[in-house]
Amino acid sequence: MTVLMRGQSDLEILQMLRDPAKKDAGFLLLMENFKKPVYWNIRRLVLSHEDAEDILQETFIQVYRHIGSFRGECKLFTWLYRIATNECTKHFRKNKLWKAQTGSEKLEASGELSGTDTEESRSILLKFQNAILQLPEKQRIVFNMRYYDELSYEEMGQILHSSVTSLKTNYHYASEKVKRYLIDHA
């Protein structure tokens, strides 16, 4: 039995994933190292825990199926974020059809508030998340990656297949819209 170790490099994980005898152990290591950041990237985009869990599962299924196509031209986490973002986009498109049929949209706060947070801080978080939800899909994705994940524009460009200039523009417009929303709903 292979013992999983934290902190293994992308190269070590990839070597395990590409070795048929170690593929399952490599996949478990990949999930151990990346599950939490990928989950929170997804969760901030879709808000619902259940939807985030479903998308996370589909992301890792896609990774398992297509690990052979990873060429190593970017970091492993960048590739994972690209797959997760694509899965979120699929969810948005499917959800638009559902919302159009039902006419409803449920907003719920997500975040890592502690039990000592005040009702005011919860209200601010909900307003902030509602502001982000008002953004067009591309701006919402770019805003979340830059604001929460603190990704560089170059990393986001690799994930989203977009130019740095376009991403900076999207982030600027998203930031301005979030500020405007918060001022208008103060």
Quick one: CATH superfamily of the largest domain?
Answer: RNA polymerase sigma factor, region 2, helix turn helix motif
Termini separation comes to 57 Å
Largest sheet: none
Question: Count the helices. How many?
Answer: 8
Give keywords:
186 residues; 72% helix; Rna Polymerase Sigma Factor, Chain: A; 8 helices; mainly alpha; single chain; disordered N terminus; Arc Repressor Mutant, subunit A; 2 domains
Q: Would you write up a description of this structure?
A:
The protein has helices at 10-18, 23-46, 49-66, 76-102, 119-133, 137-147, 153-160, 164-184. With 186 residues, it is an all-alpha fold. It folds into two domains: 1-103, Orthogonal Bundle (Rna Polymerase Sigma Factor, Chain: A), CATH 1.10.1740.10; 117-186, Orthogonal Bundle (Arc Repressor Mutant, subunit A). Helix 1 packs across helix 2, helix 2 (23-46) runs antiparallel to helix 3 and helix 4 (76-102) crosses helix 7. The radius of gyration is 18 Å and the shape is elongated. The model is unreliable at 1-6 and 97-110 (pLDDT under 50).
